[in-house]
Amino acid sequence: MNQLVKPYNDLLSNIGLLLQEGRRKSIQAVNTILVQTYWEIGRYIIEFEQNGNERAEYGTMLFDRLSRDLTQLYGKGFGRSNLLYMRKLYASFPISGTLSHLLTWSHYYEILKAENELEINFYVKQCELERWSVRELKRQMKSSLFERLALSKNKEEILKLSKVGQIIEQPKDLIKDPFVLEFLNIPDDKLLLESDLEDKIIKNLQSFIMEMGKGFAFIGRQYRMSLGGKHFYLDLLFYHRILKCFVLIDLKRGEIDHQDIGQMNLYLNYFKKEEATEGDNDPIGIILGTHKNHILVEYALSSIQNNVLLSKYQMYLPKKEELQQELERLFIKNE
Question: Taking the model in full, what pTM does it have?
Fold first, then answer.
């Protein structure tokens, strides 16, 4: 019997893996069929409207009546808002082949709350790239991720962003301005030490990594560097598996100044000589502060060859309307 234990356990394990994969595929197939079905319903509704039937027979009461009748005939799932989003699904993706098989109807329902085509396409692509749950998608949309990324780009780059999502290809792609740390639940007017801010981030590390973006792997906090008989401590150290390099993060409770930049440059030189191994690219330094003196920063960065990136962070969700207005001005400026 003992000779049969391992083969039997292997059999049990193989069957388990097969069942898990089968269930995953079946769920994915159901989601794909559901999205396709709702797309078809949206197509029927728009074709009905385009034939003039909406105005002639039902007026603005079409969705109320259709919701009531479909619910009576087929049960839940046909609320007025659901039907409106089915219509918008078809209007936004008139070619069914452009629908993503990786996204559920719950994903599309959230994404279609966006106001414009660029934003809708961006969140679809980003959900595919990052494998976001619906919960994470909601958080990213609420934090105005598209606008925050787009404001640091020109018109051509914004159009590319909406078509392929945020692809990390170079150091500057890591930056959002601002980063939003509302998940720390710190009032924006509360005075904190940098060590307190660091503690909060460590306690919410998963959310912080989600905000930083795809590819970050946490290595440690207060990473010690010994130089010339002195010890220096880096707030947060990550490795970026896509860019294949160390990412050093220094937290500033207030304004970023030229001294912070010089210190980060020192850290990066240390990492290039003492920590990087074969196959590693040059390290990247990110300094996060509540604001920065643009003139001092410009002069401080002018002669630095290392990858020193600066960005603001804030403790509250940005006002989407204000970001959209800034984005519209950017488009007009680049025309």
Answer: 0.81
